[in-house]
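Researcher: Before we compare anything, I want clean individual predictions. No alignment, no superposition, just each chain on its own. First chain goes here; please echo the sequence and then give the structure tokens.
Model: Echoing the first chain and its structure:
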Amino acid sequence: MSQSVTRSRTRIRTHGAVAVLAAGTLLLSACSGSGNSGGGSSDGSSTVTWSTWGSPEELERFEGFNEQFMADHEDITVELQPTAGYSDYHSKLLAQLTSGTAPDVFYVGDDRIGEFVDAGVLLPLSDLMDSDASQTPVDAFNPGVLGAGQTEDGEIYAVPNDVNPDALWYDKEALAAAGITEDPAELAANDEWTTETFLEMNDKLAEAGLIGSMYWNYYGTHWSWVSSQGGTAYDESGTFVGNTDATTVDAVQTFADYMQDGTFVVADTMPEGAGADSEFVTHGAGFFAQGRYTIGTLEEAGVAESYDIVRWPTPDGTAAPTTVAASYLVINADTPDPDAAFAFWTAYLSQEGQEFRLSEGGNAVPSIEGADDVVLADGYPEHAQTFLDMRDMGFANYAAESTVPGLSTDINEAMLNLYQGAGGTAQETLDQIAALAADG
């Protein structure tokens, strides 16, 4: 299962100053040896340590995978070193990398992966992925979701363990209460899911006393909206150009206007006890941009039958690329047994490995081709194929953003100020972001 894209994870961003210090720590750790207790022994057996964050339920699933892997690889012992929360995970990992005690294999969040790749602490994977030992050939993954896990020269250092496109979940009951009779998914199927129609639906929801749409304040929201509206945040060289692109400026201003008048809501800022989940399952909002993990929330509330998903709207109604949230699985460059570490890494990311982790209540979308049935098998939501289509067309967080310590945090703060009416115009906010990106 993916914890990279749960709600708590997307709300948490490391403070810029801490991130800068962390980047220095990474650079130092790249020069130090590994004190990892794993590796091979005199009898030919190996131990692979690996680390991630997650809930007790998720960690239990991972232990189940470990048991299956060890049954299939009797010469390799696997030890999971979990961290309960995402907020503590990377600081702990940085300390381990500095002291040479980092695990052989570990997760990295999509807002931090660029820093780890740049620091030189990760094992190159391209040749291994196309070797006879691999269950995960390079061409089995959509290049768009590799993001900063792949460098400009084409070398791969990190691959998403699974992904989560932020689809627009919608509440049929709330739409009906607002007098909306058209079905968003049916409109999308006919390439008629236009921005104009979407905004009109939100206007009707607001007039009915309901929240139009709810979004988390992170790159997935900002840049999905920009891309879906035909704008450009970063050019191919990694330069932020959103402030010089009229389409982007207009799109961000429209989004901000809907935020400022309360039709759109920043989910992060909703009060405890009346948060986004509560509003959605009680039919208080029409749309909610989230991933596949939303299924569990709706099923637990006993209201799943009232909900479905649709891609983001576009000016002409046809599909456009939007962001795909991810966490990445990497191998420590200083692992004492690269062969054993890769054996675990490739099994974990393989079709079989992802099917094991994501079936029976899995909360994410496979990153590898061939495992799509885990999303479609239950027939829920009705248009579950949308998750796969968004994955295949989508893109990960921009490498230019995830590589700079603290940049995503600073951008989120600037955008939140705009959404709350405290940050001037869209043009002024995008100019501020351009300056932040240039300083990085």
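Researcher: Okay. Second chain, same rules.
Model: Second chain and its structure:
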Amino acid sequence: MKMTISLPAGGSRLSELIIGPGTLDELPREILTRLGRRRAFWVWDANVRELWGERLPALQLGGAEHSEPILFAASETNKRLSSVEELARRLVEAGADRNSVLVAVGGGVTGDVVGFLASVYMRGIPCHQVPTTLLAQVDSSVGGKTGVDLPEGKNLLGSFHQPEAVWMDPRFLETLPAVELRQGMAEVVKTAMIGDARLWDYLEGHHEAIRRRDPEAVSRIVTACCAFKASVVEADEKEGGYRRILNFGHTIGHALERLSGYRVRHGDAVAVGMAVSAELSRRLGRLPDEAAARLIKLCEAWDLPTRVPSGYDPAAIVAALRSDKKRMGDVLHFILPVRIGEAIDYENLDETLLRRTLTDLSA
């Protein structure tokens, strides 16, 4: 199964999402066709290049044919403005101009950094994304959000810059460590909980096929997640309202990541955030007990944490929320699920209830 989703990306432009086995076989030829006379600069996650450079000679040729591949040591600690400057200077040295195109090959950090670089280099040049992790395929590569972190919080510097195309092939997941597959599944569970009850049923019934990285099963969940996110982004590209629904689990999750110095991984943090939000919704009488229990069960089936890690004071978590970019003035938006496949944007959550819930869910 291969599928192409076209996402309106401002004006008359389209951002295409090409999903399915064999996608990478077509990538060099397709990029050559799309580039025309433009020059491509390939920025690789160094680990991905080591794993896949020789296994995918077509991609290797595609990179060498246009420019020497640029290697990036992708990690949350390198998701900084200094990395953007370093990569930009390498582009200048290599002769990249306003007609050049960036191609990001790697996970979410690589996509975020290279996407941000593309949005500001010479006031903006096009980019293509080749996400190589499940998390990047189902979430971060779709929708045009780019960004880097500050010590005060995640993604506080960023832009909206839609890629020309996103190329997703489940073969990349063959070498993905189990812990990274788990991180991506947190975003898949998130998508199903807030907007796709059919995907939720599929997740509950096809756990083993997904765990063994069956290409059809993986393509199905990636396609479902991308289709849902594309519909949300089409309705609200710049996150003026409806797009905030995609932040389910991320309000608490981002606070945990920052407080831990990013030792708590993104997917694990989001899973805890989802559990907290579900419990808040249950206590507010918005989410049925049965739906809350199903969320916890599905997270635990993927070994995702559902309790606040020990050592994190609820007061510190609440304080960290005040620097969250999703805060609007003094109003912090919480996305609360109300049933499997539906969530709401809840404003002015009672801080006492939040502290009590965080305390009750602490490990």
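Researcher: What stands out in the second chain?
Model: The mean pLDDT is 90. Additionally, The first helix runs from residue 23 to 35.
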